[in-house]
Amino acid sequence: MTFILPLNAGSDRPVPFIDLVPQFQSMSAEVMAVVERVFTEQKFIMGDEVAGLEEEIAAYCDSRFAIGCNSGTDALIIALQALDIGEGDEVITTPFSFFATASSICRAGATPVFVDIDPETFNLDVDAIEDAITPHTKAIMPVHLFGQCCDMEPLWRLCQKYNLHIVEDACQAIGAEYQGRRTGVLGAVGCFSFFPTKNLGGAGDGGMMTTDDPELYAKLKRLRVHGDIGQYEHLDLGMNSRLDALQAAVLRVKLKQLENWTTARQNNAARYGQMFEQAGILDTISLPVAKSDRRHVYNQYCIRVQDGQRDHVMQQLKASKVGCAVYYPKPLHLQTCFKHLGYKAGQFPHSEAASRDILALPSYPELPVADQDRVVDCLVKICREMPQSQQVRRAA
Ligand SMILES: *Cc1c(COP(=O)(O)O)cnc(C)c1O
Questions:
Q1: Contacts by 374-378 with C-beta closer than 8 Å and gap 24+?
Q2: Is 142 in the pocket of ligand 1 (CB under 6 A)?
Q3: For the chain, N or C: smaller number of CB within 10 Å?
């Protein structure tokens, strides 16, 4: 029997923002085999799987040590504790990030001090940091947002000059590089998340810390298990942030594919860029900027929609059943729980503008070409129908 498809077949098939199913399908036999192994052995906490993953992540990042933990959030908190950062200390970071960047600083007992972003890369504006340094400043926490490294060299200079630590929030940026060096070795401690939608995602929560310093390594390692050095001897007030063997086993299988997935993300980004440029809509949207001294791993592919039209574009995409998302709609300095820090609307104009303009498009590694084409077709149509861009074209 032959099916003759109507011309517009599938034209309104929903395009999900992210779909984790095809990735699992591509490796389900191998994943289920290691799950079975963990269940057979009944060693669920830490153990050989976690030690194996730690070794492999350390090798991947070219770091001396890696320490598994329960989440990216815990990795950030433990890193700060290991550096003796707490009560009375200040940590400089960006207000344009996921909540945990700033909450981890508070959880460690310290105070986040926000500095605005560079509107081109959405990362910390490194030229604005020095003015925010006080005698209480102990560390800078750069976030490699969306998978592109923060400009690190100016940070290294400031850290030398003022004797500060760097804690990398690399939760969105495993495998990203700055001047040829991977995230995880760009500061004192690198912090990673294995939340399922990160570039290396587990079957639940998980995290990792990396360091080159043997003393820090020992401290990070005991802080994740109640500060225990064995025989129920507790040196510090640590926490329970162990990594499950099940997560480690699954992540070890997935890590082998990470480079392929990164390439696929980069290809998606390149293809979006070419198609948007060809369609001539770069007066309405702007593309993410990948700096030449960095390797962008595109945890998110985020465009900016000009002229306050982001919400309109998002509504229209959703009406066409095309998935998209906003990271992040409200900068951290304006969050209710940080009210006591005393920041005001208008204080970080670039972060606030990014929150209004930013729009993430589907770009997961297995995104079908047909789906990507539909994202582009829909977005181009929306842009062309927008009153301003018509005016711009008429004027041109
Ligand atoms: C995901 C993420 C975190 C937190 O990681 P979890 O594993 O969810 O705790 C922290 N910072 C950034 C920038 C993130 O994207």
A1: 374/11, 374/13, 374/15, 374/322, 375/15, 375/272, 375/317, 375/322, 376/272, 376/275, 376/276, 376/279, 378/316, 378/317, 378/320, 378/322
A2: no
A3: N
Answer yes or no: is the C-beta of 281 below 6 A from any ligand 1 atom.
no
Domain 258-395 homologous superfamily, CATH:
Aspartate Aminotransferase, domain 1 (3.90.1150.10)
Residue 168, ligand 1, Cβ within 6 A: no
Report helix, strand or coil for 82: helix
Digitized pLDDT (tens) for each residue of the chain, 396 residues in all: 445 544 444 567 899 999 999 999 999 999 999 999 999 999 999 899 999 999 999 999 999 999 999 999 999 999 999 999 999 999 999 999 999 999 999 999 999 999 999 999 999 999 999 999 999 999 999 999 999 999 999 999 999 999 999 999 999 999 999 999 999 999 999 999 999 999 999 999 999 999 999 999 999 999 999 999 999 999 999 999 999 999 999 999 999 999 999 999 999 999 999 999 999 999 999 999 999 999 999 999 999 999 999 999 999 999 999 999 999 999 999 999 999 999 999 999 999 999 999 999 999 999 999 999 999 999 999 999 987 654 455 454
Topology of domain 24-255 in CATH is Aspartate Aminotransferase; domain 2 (3.40.640)
Residue 172 near ligand 1, beta carbon < 6 Å:
yes
In the chain, where are the structural domains located? 24-255, 258-395
Atom of ligand 1 nearest to the CA of 76: 10
Ligand 1 geometric centre to CA of 171 (Å): 5
Residue nearest to atom 6 of ligand 1 (CA): 72
Atom 10 of ligand 1: nearest residue by CA position: 100
Question: How far apart are alpha carbons 293 and 185 in whole angstroms?
Answer: 16
